[in-house]
Specification:
The complex is a heterodimer of chains A (175) and B (384). Chain A is an all-alpha fold. Helix content of chain A is 75%, strand content 0%. Chain A contains six helices and no strands. In chain A, helix 1 packs antiparallel against helix 2 and helix 1 packs antiparallel against helix 5. Chain B has 384 residues and is α/β, with parallel strands linked by helices. In chain B, the strands form four sheets. A seven-stranded parallel β-sheet of chain B has the order 3-2-1-6-8-9-10, sandwiched between helices. Classes of the chains: A mainly alpha (175), B alpha/beta (384). At the A-B interface, helix 1 and helix 5 of A face helix 14 of B.
């Protein structure tokens, strides 16, 4: 009789441990899914920003030198490999600021290209938002994966440790 | 876009979060989006057409004041049904760390979740205790917004992670014009102790953090030195209890309006010579302050971080050391004696408040929605 109770208690304990571990694994899984989605949103925002920058370069609103600078930076950002992407995107932010923050530019244009500048304003802000959200998801996931249980057991499967995306995304002054 | 918004506090009780949600919802509807708001509401409360009641809220002590919150399995069930029937593309939860509908929504919803954090407070044991409970619900949020630098710091310190900063908006046009209330002269260029002037206060009477006691103490000095001065107090709470704290000879110059309608609130801002915001803290933005600024009221506010920022470091409103009645009385007297200074502050306030207009804010919030729905199919918010 005693043996049976001991066995039942062990079973119950095992069940609890199993439930907890699978809950933790499920939670990590959800966090990884959130990282993937946030990263996809960030990619979309970056590609969109490069596209708007290219359009601005081709719009003949800016002088040829500025246009060339902008087009080159946008192209570099779009074609950069994983290694150099953060640098290329930061360069695009700087090129955009250099192009758009020229003193007196908006007065010279006098309303021409307003829809394009509005689109650029949205694009650069969405890059800031998407990057913040992505890094937020990454940090939550990294914290969860550093917990002792996640290090002892392969709770995260083969998912690589998510990386932060660090760039200069300070927007040009558009308002 | 189909947008579901979750309000944590009772709709018909005036408050910064509720006003924020109302104005955001209306600004989003104005540009053609479908918006549904779920909120606690009293049974007989009149709700706008876009709001849905989640039932009555219960007054409980929380975070240093008495809050009316909705919790429990019945509320969770209502939120669940609302999400299922709403077909939302994005769910926007306000104050998800408060034990109310917002937290329940985090718990039952899956999909693109945006959350706005309003409150700011110092790190405390009580909040540290709740952090692990909140963690797993808040982990589902895809995009976090903070309404102020202080709210963002609170979020980072208590719960970790980060948020984008989108300040509160204000429908500035709604406050721009207003007749003074009957019996009040409104803003004049009067100066001197006998001039019929008025100070104003707006906020809950029984909430210590709003700082009414500081103003009352200052009025003891001011009222005696300036026989023409009256104090206009608008806000819900026990009026008898407040009046009992005022010396008998000054009592008839403290006018209590009680809970005022939106329209009377605007008129109240236009009825006073100096609007006083003596808050002691816990305020992350000060929506009352921006309303007064839109009305062009000359402002005297405590120098808490949030007010300092909104008032452009004192250029758009005078500041005094927080919780110091003597300093309040002294600065108020200076302002009451200087019509030119009041006119300047009024002008500066109207200019400084423009960046907070709702049209700007709603546009930024929409960009957050558009960011978090990238890559997820439409009507993506589901119940888990």
């Amino acid at each position: 009789m005693d043996g049976l109770i001991t066995a039942l208690l062990w079973l119950a304990a095992l069940f609890l441990v199993f439930t907890y571990v699978s809950w933790r694994a499920g939670r990590l899984d959800r966090l990884h899914a959130r990282v993937d989605l946030a990263r996809a949103a960030l990619d979309a925002a970056l590609v969109r920003r490069a596209a708007v920058a290219l359009e601005l370069a081709a719009s003949q609103l800016l002088d040829p030198a500025t246009s060339l600078l902008l087009a080159a930076a946008a192209h570099a950002a779009r074609t950069a490999d994983a290694e150099s992407r953060e640098f290329a995107e930061s360069d695009l932010s700087r090129a955009l600021r250099a192009a758009v923050d020229q003193p007196g530019l908006r007065a010279t244009l006098d309303g021409r290209g307003a829809p394009l500048f509005e689109e650029l304003d949205a694009a650069v802000q969405k890059v800031m938002f998407a990057r913040r959200f992505s890094n937020d998801a990454v940090s939550a996931t990294r914290i969860a994966r550093r917990r002792i249980l996640a290090r002892l057991l392969p709770l995260a499967g083969h998912a690589p440790m998510p990386e932060f995306f660090e760039i200069d995304d300070v927007p040009p002054m558009l308002d | 876009m189909r947008i579901g918004i979750v309000c944590p506090y009772t709709w018909n009780v005036p408050g910064g979060v509720q006003a924020h949600i109302r104005d955001l919802a209306e600004a989003l509807i104005a540009v053609g989006h479908h918006v549904s708001v779920i909120t606690p509401a009293d049974d007989d409360a009149a709700l706008p057409p876009y709001a849905v009641s989640a039932g009555r809220a219960i007054p409980v002590p929380y975070n240093g004041s008495v809050a009316r919150l909705s919790f429990g399995f019945l509320s969770a069930g209502r939120v669940r049904r609302w999400i299922r029937e709403g077909d939302f593309d994005v769910l926007h939860i306000h104050e998800p760390a408060a034990p109310s509908l917002g937290l329940l929504a985090c718990w039952v919803a899956d999909g693109p979740l945006v959350a706005t954090f309003h409150a700011s407070y110092e790190k405390s044991r009580a909040v540290s205790v709740s952090a692990p409970i909140l963690q797993s619900a808040l982990e589902k949020i895809t995009g976090r917004i903070a309404v102020s630098e202080a709210a963002r710091t609170t979020l980072v310190e208590h719960l970790g992670g980060d948020a984008v900063l989108i300040p509160n908006g204000i429908a500035t046009a709604r406050y721009e014009h207003g007749e003074p209330l009957p019996g009040w002269a409104g803003r004049t260029d009067a100066e001197g102790p006998d001039a019929p002037q008025a100070l104003g206060f707006l906020g809950r009477l029984d909430e210590p953090r709003k700082g009414l006691p500081v103003l009352l103490k200052a009025f003891e000095t001011l009222g005696r030195a300036r026989p023409g001065l009256r104090l206009l107090v608008a806000g819900p709470g026990d009026e008898e209890e407040i009046l009992a704290k005022v010396s008998p000879e000054l009592r008839d110059r403290v006018v209590m309006l009680g809970l005022v309608s939106e329209e009377d609130k605007v008129r109240a801002y236009h009825s006073v010579d100096v609007f006083v915001a003596p808050n002691l803290g816990g305020e992350s933005f000060g929506i009352v302050l921006t309303e007064a600024m839109s009305a062009g009221a000359p402002i005297l506010a405590s120098d808490i971080e949030a007010f300092r920022r909104v008032l452009d470091d004192g250029r758009a409103g005078a500041l005094f050391p927080t919780g110091d009645p003597a300093a309040l009385a002294e600065r108020a007297a200076l302002l009451l004696d200087d019509a030119k200074c009041r006119a300047d502050l009024s002008e500066q306030a109207r200019t400084a408040v423009r960046v907070y207009d709702w049209s700007t804010v709603a546009r930024d919030v929409l960009r957050v929605y558009e960011t978090v729905v990238v890559g997820v199919p439409g009507a993506a918010v589901t119940v888990s």
